[in-house]
Amino acid sequence: QVRLVESGGGLVQPGDSLRLSCAASGFTLDEYAIAWFRQAPGKEREAVSGINNKAGRTYYADSVKGRFTISRDNAENTVYLQMNSLRPEDTAVYYCAAVDLVAAGILPEGEYDYWGQGTQVTVSS
Hints:
Layout: E1 3-7, E2 10-12, E3 18-25, E4 33-39, E5 46-51, E6 58-60, E7 68-73, E8 78-83, E9 92-99, E10 114-115, E11 119-123
Parallel strand pairs: 2-11
Antiparallel strand pairs: 1-3, 3-8, 4-5, 4-9, 5-6, 7-8, 9-10, 9-11
């Protein structure tokens, strides 16, 4: 079975940090392109960050550049999203997604075949 499980969300204050994890089972994660998406209350789902197959080239939305870092641990078959300097507008459910494709950037949502159930991030004072 192919499965993605997100974890690491929680309630933090502005300026704090969180590290989200996306653990994969049923496939080897470094053979897939991985992306993080988020959906805030009343808003459409948006792309946040992505990491390519093999070489691990990374991509970021303008709203998180300089604050978020995506990385992959092949030994643990897990992708991480380190989130620093969090803002209230970062509040959302965060999802990871995977597809067996290579792309120069984050692909449209419809290209991703596998999705996790999401983890809630709330940034509030």
